[in-house]
Specification:
The chain is an alpha+beta fold. It has eight helices and eight strands, in the order E-E-E-E-E-H-H-H-H-E-E-H-E-H-H-H. It is elongated, with a radius of gyration of 20 Å. Helix content is 39%, strand content 24%. Helix 4 crosses helix 7. 35% of the residues are buried. The longest helix has 19 residues. It has two domains: 79 residues, Nucleic acid-binding proteins (OB fold (Dihydrolipoamide Acetyltransferase, E2P)), CATH 2.40.50; 168 residues, de novo design (two linked rop proteins).
Length: 250
């Protein structure tokens, strides 16, 4: 029985281990999230070290022991250098990969998630100035693919189509309701979400990530979409991502 495998993945986490080793986590096309041990990779003589950089897309080989995976070879396919050139777009990329790393289980294949991450990084690499729209669209689509968001068209209480004006977001339960239902429950816990923001978020769910570039977005709608994604993220994880702080700095 072979214990040597190969794959294509994007580096989503690197953490130190002992003096010369590292944990390297990939989100792979074939096997979902894999965390490997890269022996000796912190040595200046390591041939794998230049290829193991966050957000790199890498072809790699690894060996599976009884308890761990060991990285044996790595060759980068894409570095996304233009994305990493500016701190603002780099911070957005770091937020995306941390969200994916925290929200996904180990070794659960999901080709659609790999494609979403890879395509978003590719588009952001060409249009780094659009990093905010792409970052927030990525988070909304990620939450949808993982089953945390279903849509933005119906009320969570009466299940009727939301009116052509505004809806209300319950931050505690991460649900959308129409105004009559919000008033029946307790409107003080609801935040108004205008129709334009709902349309934008629904468009994101229904279209590939690059379609975001064609949409004329208003700053208020982007802010509401950002707020909406963060509410869901905080509810699921119960703690903020480390990379969220850098988004406000840069």
């Amino acid at each position: 029985m072979t214990r040597s495998f190969s794959g294509t993945g994007i580096v989503i986490r690197v953490a130190p281990l002992a003096e010369s080793d590292r944990f390297v986590t990939f989100y792979t096309k074939e096997h979902g999230k894999l965390t490997t041990i890269a022996k000796g990779i912190r040595s200046v003589k390591s041939r794998r070290s230049p290829h193991i950089e966050l957000m790199n897309r890498v072809k790699f080989q690894y060996w599976r022991s009884k308890h761990h995976l060991y990285l044996t070879q790595a060759q980068s396919e894409e570095h996304f250098r233009d994305l990493k050139h500016e701190m603002v777009s780099l911070a957005s990329g770091a937020f995306m990969i941390e969200a994916l790393e925290r929200l996904t289980p180990d070794e659960e294949p999901n080709l659609a998630l790999f494609d979403l991450l890879n395509q978003t990084l590719e588009v952001m690499n060409f249009y780094p100035h659009k990093h905010i729209e792409l970052r927030e669209a990525f988070l909304i689509k990620l939450l949808q693919m993982l089953g945390h968001i279903t849509g933005f068209r119906t009320c969570s209480q009466c299940h009727q189509k939301l009116p052509q004006a505004t809806a209300y977001l319950n931050r505690t339960h991460c649900t959308l309701t129409c105004e009559p239902c919000a008033q029946k429950i307790d409107a003080i816990h609801y935040e108004k979400v205008p129709l334009g923001a709902l349309k934008l978020m629904h468009f994101i769910l229904e279209h590939p990530i690059h379609a975001v570039l064609k949409v004329k977005t208003e700053a208020t709608h982007i802010n509401l979409m950002t707020n909406f994604g963060r509410v869901f993220l905080a509810q699921i994880l119960q703690y903020p991502l480390k990379s969220e702080r850098s988004l406000t700095i840069y």
